[in-house]
Amino acid sequence: PSVPRHTNRLINEKSPYLLQHAHNPVDWFPWSQEAFDKAKKENKLIFLSVGYSTCHWCHVMEEESFKNREIGEIMNKNFVCIKVDREERPDVDKVYMTFVQATSGGGGWPMSVWLTPDLKPFVGGTYFPPEDGVHRVGFRTVLLRIAEQWKENKDALLENSQKILEALLHRSEIRVRGQESPPPSKEVMATCFQQLSNSYDEDYGGFSESPKFPTPVNLNFLFTYWALHRTTPQGARALQMALHTLKMMAHGGIHDHVGQGFHRYSTDQHWHVPHFEKMLYDQGQLAAMYSRAFQISGDEFFADVAQDILLYVSRDLSDQAGGFYSAEDADSYPTTASGEKREGAFCVWEAEEIRALLPDPVEGATEGTTLGDVFMHHYGVKETGNVSPVKDPHQELKGKNVLIVRSSLELTAARFGLELGRLGALLWEGRRRLSAARAQRPRPHMDTKMLAAWNGLMISGFAQAGAALAKQEYVSRAVQAAAFLRRHLFDPTSGRLLRSCYRGKDNRVEQSAVPIQGFLEDYAFVIQALFDLYEASLEQGWLEWALQLQHMQDKLFWDPKGFAYFSSEAGDPSLLLRLKDDQDGAEPTANSVTVTNLLRAACYSGHTEWVEKAGQILAAFSERLQKIPITLPEMARATAVFHHTLKQVVICGDPQGEDTKEMLRCVHSVFSPNKMLILADGDSSAFLYRQLPFLASLARKDGKATAYLCSNFACSLPVTSPQELHGMLCS
């Protein structure tokens, strides 16, 4: 590579996204005191650009504007320019996104915001084309106009920015309004179910026409709704909606049939043509949902998909030290000789490529059939490409095919006169050969930063799959990742989590010069992961750490006046607002997850004040939960767990004994959202016996492994057979 013409301060950063901009002609600063001081000293406006490394339009805006020398000169002359990776600094992103959404009615990335020297926003938008077009004003024009405004009308701008800030403070406040009690769970659950049912796509699953997102939070809600209403028609519909959605997604092009794992979302109603980036948070949550679908239905199809996701993560998103990388990009070079990247280039196929790779005649099939014929039929491959031009505005996928399962195995087998087992083997061989061919293509960029929150979601995915599918290797992988968190994303002296760490030179794990402290979501998702990991591994050390982190979360983020937790801690002068997220989106919001965390923490520790806190979170979000619970399905689900009181399933037995293992297998085979597991091994000096004195009174009956169902520290009669335990868990 030639020596770069320009280098700015981002060259000293660790974030792959910031490093991508280190050679722009723009004099970028990271979000830092140095930048704020410069703006104040030179009395300049700040231009803030926020994005992330797998964001397609962020790449486009960089190519068109930030790499343009003239535009760079205008930016450097008139503004102090700051670049932020939203995955590193969700707090900064959230403050200014709240502003952009409030003032423009939309939002997204790249986010472009102009701030006064004291960081107050006054103009904002998302992507700007470089030059004026028929319908939009260009970035160059916007820059010049704003610079002019600052020269001419500085006082008016400052006054206006102050008013905007006050309005934002008022708009974004979430707090208890008078009433202190949580909303009625039955009504919240019923409304949320109704709202999801109304938006459900009967044919293809999912909860919108297009674009279509995986939304694991909706599926998690539906599974819980089913578990509490198993015998009603509504319960049956909830389960059908969740399972059908998971099946259609697995058949669709959003699922990478050759390289495993799931892409971010589908641009069409059929789950066919995706945006091709792959995010860690989707893999973690979907692995848990497919495992749960298997646990409930017993259908091996769902277990296979869960294993497919975990294979992808183990192979492609895993650091050798045990952590998980954040994401894989959508854009890549079609061949090693290509000059420009294309979306999906790594994943799509021309029909003739597939024919050339799979020319073998298939014995026993109808005359003249090749492996290519069978494969192309099953995966909807067309000679001219299977992507509709409507879904491909930039013609990047012309003549290409995104694999999608268009017919059942039975129909494909019948069409070619094959046995089912034989067809399965042929398709497997086809996928194997395509995978080998794909390995010769240039790979998409990998964002190798490792985030505490997303690692937490992935640990939950491995732990839940390990328990539900009875696969010890998944539990071991979760343990390895939790040990990584403890080593690299936790500060034992302060007891606090860190947000991020990075893959550095020689593949060593590195930390930035000033580590970013963990945010609320880091605590919520890591604590949830540690509870899931205890239930899968039964190692009490994870529980002990989870409870310590819960105390720290309370200390750093709890709002004693308005209830619930702030997303960021107090005391950062560069943050204008302390916000509380109010939407379960691609990831659940931290307050939603924390409700269940607090209830679990109380059951493992005996601290009942955590139950009270859980109720206070629900009270703070009460209005939203009663009117539009579809925006908070994970919190709506938690209202039911709160209302039904978590039950402790205590197994008294020797962890190595076959009878104990059989009882544990029984617990892991049943989905019961309002139960949690404790293994009482008789070691009275262990952490759990110290926390929960009542465990000492529970004995093994006739020397056999014995189960008790306990609630509020009172327990049922003992049972010693897995059949009786199964009945107890389903009741």
UniProtKB/TrEMBL annotation:
<dbReference type="InterPro" id="IPR024705">
    <property type="entry name" value="Ssp411"/>
</dbReference>
<feature type="domain" description="Spermatogenesis-associated protein 20-like TRX">
    <location>
        <begin position="7"/>
        <end position="168"/>
    </location>
</feature>
<dbReference type="InterPro" id="IPR004879">
    <property type="entry name" value="Ssp411-like_TRX"/>
</dbReference>
<dbReference type="InterPro" id="IPR008928">
    <property type="entry name" value="6-hairpin_glycosidase_sf"/>
</dbReference>
<dbReference type="InterPro" id="IPR036249">
    <property type="entry name" value="Thioredoxin-like_sf"/>
</dbReference>
<protein>
    <submittedName>
        <fullName>SPT20 protein</fullName>
    </submittedName>
</protein>
<dbReference type="InterPro" id="IPR012341">
    <property type="entry name" value="6hp_glycosidase-like_sf"/>
</dbReference>
<dbReference type="GO" id="GO:0005975">
    <property type="term" value="P:carbohydrate metabolic process"/>
</dbReference>
<dbReference type="Pfam" id="PF03190">
    <property type="entry name" value="Thioredox_DsbH"/>
</dbReference>
